[in-house]
Design goal:
Blueprint: E1 31-34, E2 37-41, E3 46-53, E4 60-67, E5 72-75, E6 78-82, E7 88-94, E8 104-113, E9 116-125, E10 156-165, H1 174-192, E11 195-200, E12 205-209, H2 213-221, E13 226-233, H3 250-253, H4 257-264, E14 286-292, E15 310-311, H5 330-339, E16 357-363, H6 374-384, E17 401-404, H7 414-425, E18 429-433, E19 455-461, E20 482-485, E21 496-500, E22 504-508, H8 511-528, H9 534-543, H10 554-557, H11 564-569
Parallel strand pairs: 2-9, 14-16, 14-17, 15-16, 17-18, 18-19, 19-20
Antiparallel strand pairs: 1-3, 3-7, 4-6, 4-8, 5-7, 8-9, 10-12, 10-13, 11-12, 21-22
Helix pairs in contact: 4-8, 5-8, 6-7
Length: 582
């Protein structure tokens, strides 16, 4: 799970361990506090609570108030109330200057007195807008008319072929050379029964009509008088998703991802059907399971891609998270990085944003997003992979890829390792976040389940491609396999922007954000090459990573930084080149 960013409370709103110690009594004062819970947002960041003394006559209640969040302020913070006197009104306010839209902060407030102690939960939501306009930097310019240099096979004008001719043998120059070339072109058209449509004198080719462009082009290419022949391919803009938050997603704009979208066909359709974008052509969907704190399946950027999931904690079919908090929002944020619907004019774009990469939400945490067990995590892996789990209905949509942005400490956990091995044998590729407790010497290694042999351990890099300071690694213990963007970059919120519950968008950082990036890239590969097995997918991801031996080492970086473009296109053996360089 991601580290708590600066400005967040240590504990989330919905699950708090609340313990206070009585300080004795003085003439039997009794503490009364109301209300029991405060909900604040950016429109109303200030509220009041009242402290009363319900004790015996002449008793004096002495109190003080504190919280576990530096963002929560009180005025006054201490005082005394006599029995029968008016209640003390405390002004509670939130300093949200360090928060970004969509951030959720929470705190436990302790009120200690000589007449008893009490606790109060304070929750704060920094409201977000769908358009991300309120807290975005100026959009970066996109050069209009930028064209693709590698057209998709089959995307050509029906009935047309472009033909270039070789210069005829002999001594020709000037006008005689042009006339000789035209005469040779005429003979070629006659021999192959072609009709001239137009001539491009400047480019030196003709556009001719034919019933079967691929077959005609192949036949013409074998003619020694022809220099080249190919269908009249459509030229497509290198389109970027029209999602309003796209330009605030530094992790999505880099790491070779826009080029990977071109290779995968996400930005075009082979058959002209816009609903087929992202299809591998096989007609089958790629299923990505997100095992986490739950996913807001009604979110505007996720609902059209979501399959029926499950809640392993409650053993029911409702995988949605509990009340909004930083922790409970985690799974929705992770899902959006990998799979948020793209090019829909709403919110953000996920790595695998096309309609035929589907989301399978698997909830293993309680509603607070704070408590889960290794037993439930093991069952979640098996269920997601389509393996029968006692007491649960069989998953009708076995996952091709399983993402686990969760951690169970740095010790090896055999139960998780066995479950991961079974899920991999069933055909699922498993990825997990490395962990966010990095020490300088890498003594402890990555966390479980990332340290399982059958799981790809994903660490985090910042936009600069350097290891994020929090990202776990191991020098004398299991370490990362690959690195992906999950840390800090040039976005307006400095972290990774993605979906959070209630149609909001927020920012988090951590290896939890890096793992779904890798899962999304794996989904893009499968959407293009549906026959690959988990080992072939692993080899593709690791074998195409960028590794600079002058700035990186295998202990901290594993195979290097994931390059989506090379991973999707299968360009092996070019690891010294940065992502996007060809």
């Amino acid at each position: 799970m991601p580290p708590i960013p600066r400005g967040f409370a240590v504990l989330p709103l919905a699950m708090l361990i609340l313990g206070l110690t009585a300080c004795g009594a003085f003439q039997s004062p009794t503490l009364e506090v109301g209300p029991e819970q405060l909900q604040l947002d950016s429109n109303f960041p200030v509220k009041e609570i009242a402290i009363s003394n319900a004790g015996g006559a002449y008793s004096v209640l002495r109190w003080s108030v504190s919280s576990d969040s530096p963002l929560i302020h009180f005025s006054p913070s201490r005082g005394e109330v006599r029995a029968g006197g008016s209640a003390e009104v405390i002004r509670v306010s939130v300093d949200f200057s360090s928060l970004e839209q969509g951030d959720v902060a929470a705190a436990t407030v302790w009120i200690e007195s000589n007449g008893g102690d009490a606790e109060l939960q304070v929750g704060f939501l920094m409201d977000s807008t769908r358009a991300c306009a309120a807290n975005m930097e100026e959009p970066k310019s996109v050069e209009a008319g930028q064209l693709s240099a590698s057209p998709i096979a089959g995307a050509f004008v029906p009935g047309e072929v472009l033909v270039g001719y070789r210069r005829p043998e002999g001594e020709f120059s000037g006008l005689s050379a042009r006339l000789a070339l035209e005469a040779q072109a005429g003979m070629v058209r006659a021999d192959h029964e072609l009709r001239l449509l137009s001539t491009s004198a400047a480019a030196g080719f003709e556009r001719v009509a034919t019933e079967d462009p691929p077959a005609t082009a192949k036949r013409l290419a074998a003619d020694p008088r022809v220099e080249f022949a190919h269908p009249n391919y459509y030229v497509r803009p290198l389109t970027l998703p029209n999602d309003p938050c796209y330009f605030d997603q530094w992790n999505i704009q880099g790491f070779g991802l826009p080029e990977a979208w071109e290779h995968s066909g996400l930005t075009s359709s082979d058959d002209g059907d816009p609903d087929s974008r992202g299809s591998s052509g096989s007609g089958s969907d790629v299923v990505v399971a997100i095992i986490d704190t739950g996913v807001d399946v009604d979110h505007e950027d996720l609902r059209n891609k979501t399959l029926q999931g499950i809640d392993l904690r409650d053993r029911d079919d409702d995988p949605r998270p509990g009340a909004p908090s930083h922790a409970s929002a985690h799974g929705t944020h992770v899902a959006g990085i990998a799979l948020a619907e793209g090019n829909n004019g709403v919110g953000v774009a996920g790595v695998a944003y096309g309609p035929r990469v589907r989301l399978l939400p698997v909830k293993i945490f309680d509603d607070s997003g704070m408590q889960a067990t290794t037993a439930d995590l093991a069952d979640a892996m098996l269920w997601a992979a389509g393996i029968s789990v006692h007491g649960l209905p069989r998953n009708p949509h076995p996952a091709d890829i399983i993402n686990m942005s969760v951690g169970a400490g740095s010790n090896r956990v055999p139960a998780l390792e066995r479950a991961a091995e079974r899920a991999r044998l069933a055909g699922a590729l498993l990825l997990a976040a490395a962990g966010n407790n990095s020490s300088t010497n890498g003594q402890h290694g990555v966390q479980a389940p990332a340290n399982a042999p059958a799981v790809i351990a994903v660490g985090s890099v910042d936009e600069s491609l350097t290891r994020s300071s929090f990202s776990d690694w191991g020098e004398f213990a299991p370490t990362v396999d690959i690195m992906a963007p999950g840390g800090y970059g040039s976005a307006s919120c400095l972290r990774v922007r993605s979906t959070v519950p209630w149609n909001n968008y927020g920012c988090m950082a951590g290896t939890s954000m890096a793992a779904p990036f890798a899962a999304g890239v794996a989904a893009l590969i499968l959407s293009r090459e549906p026959g690959l097995d988990p080992q072939e997918l692993t080899d593709r991801l690791l074998g195409t990573a960028y590794f600079d031996p002058t700035t990186m080492n295998s202990d901290e970086y594993g195979s290097g930084v994931l390059c989506a473009d090379r991973a999707v296109s299968g360009s092996l053996g070019r690891r010294s080149l940065p992502c996007g360089a060809h």
